[in-house]
Amino acid sequence: MKKRQEQKTDSLRGCVHLVGAGPGDPELITVRGRRLIENCGALVYDALVNAEMLNWARPDCRCIFVGKQPGQRCATQESIGDLLVALASEGLEVVRLKGGDPFVFGRGGEEAQRLQAAGVPFTVVPAVTAALAAGAFAGIPLTHREHSSAVTFVSGHEDPRKGESTINWEVLARSGSTLCLYMAVGRLGAIAQRLQAAGLPGSTPACAVQWAGTSRQKSVVGTLGNLSFRVAAAGLSSPAIIVIGEVVSLQQTLSWFSPENGADHAQDHLPPLELPLADC
Amino acid sequence: MKKRQEQKTDSLRGCVHLVGAGPGDPELITVRGRRLIENCGALVYDALVNAEMLNWARPDCRCIFVGKQPGQRCATQESIGDLLVALASEGLEVVRLKGGDPFVFGRGGEEAQRLQAAGVPFTVVPAVTAALAAGAFAGIPLTHREHSSAVTFVSGHEDPRKGESTINWEVLARSGSTLCLYMAVGRLGAIAQRLQAAGLPGSTPACAVQWAGTSRQKSVVGTLGNLSFRVAAAGLSSPAIIVIGEVVSLQQTLSWFSPENGADHAQDHLPPLELPLADC
After folding, report:
1. What is the pLDDT of residues A69-79, one digit of tens each?
2. Is B148 within 8 Å of B246 (Cβ atoms)?
3. Least buried of A129, B77, B203, B223, by fewest C-beta within 10 Å?
4. CB-CB: which of B132, B174, B260 is closest to A129?
């Protein structure tokens, strides 16, 4: 601790903390994440971050929204990098607050690379990634000695019908691992077909969980074969996690969470972006 | 919140919170986890939990150690379940504090099943699982748009040379997913051989990270082919996470953490067990 304080006093240069905000409920950020938000001079945050966390910041903290919103134009990754470097160069201690964990589907790696290339000191604060929250609040142990000894987090963002997909769905179908799909609601039908074609039975238990742990939590349970229809019928949309595997069957007895006891996660009044835009 | 309080007042029955303590640094527990520890009437904790967290508990809180220590006899899973049910039946609010996340290789699922069967109300508080901390503090983005769109957490506890292993290492070797091995240090040589035999190149970057984020953090970088020798040469032991995949190469530029700035994680004076013992 002493060393860290000395570094700060010695240098006029600021720094950037890449902080995971966790899955939505503000109580599910880490103690360190909350402390850094309370002390920082600038807070650069995403759309999935619970707005209540902004209230923790100092009155003089510069809060800047750079989030992506479905169907709208968003800040480019390059402009976000420029912003972080510029704020740190002003000598500010900057928190870059990202939904979930910064190093799991969060482009935190790209932002760290940009900071490193610019010579800006940074730290990384891990967090509860969305799949862990989906498991906890839907009552699904992602691993279990009697069911699964592995769990895979995989992006459903790529179109599985396109040739250039880097994801080997055929191999994942045979892995025996619990599968947790991120950003997959829109492509669930195509992904489920591809997994079934590769041999994963259509009867495999599957569940979609949206806004896990908050007052807006919705979950839909079914099978690999029918979940995409049930999700559509329930009107469940992004952001959600899809869990596929035998462990999902445990949800029947272990489901314990009532959304009416969950934290609010209001997102109705996102501020305007101030950065160059791109299609996202 | 109102509803939850009413439930408590209405019933003499206690409840159990299955709380993940995170990877070791006490600041990496969630805000909710810390609050529940501060308020509970009984705290049942594991060997991997940072002893500093016990200081957060009320003076009248009953703190009970049920941890596993390598090479020693430990409390049986059944006796831990009995204890949780008994404490809740006394009307206590119980925190069952487990290293990492309760639903990732933590037997949290089994404890939840036991509580459910006994009619004891429970909640689950997710946490930073060890692999997320290893990535954050070793400077390894577990996913990255240019390298990997999936990450798999897999138990290395089973002997891969035994026939009864439920893990399909051959399939995992071809998945293109970043692999994070838990509890694998003792079997790393055999696992690495099996992954290579299945086609994962011996030149694949690989890294072992012990006690991530604490003053005791040690990491060893190498390749799938040579990591087990380097780990042995460095004297690195459990608990550690092994990360295998192209993303490990990013560690060369993104490594930012100095253990001398990390939190202490003293474990020298674990208390005696008071429960029936088994070989573990």
Report:
1. 766 777 888 99
2. yes
3. B203
4. B132
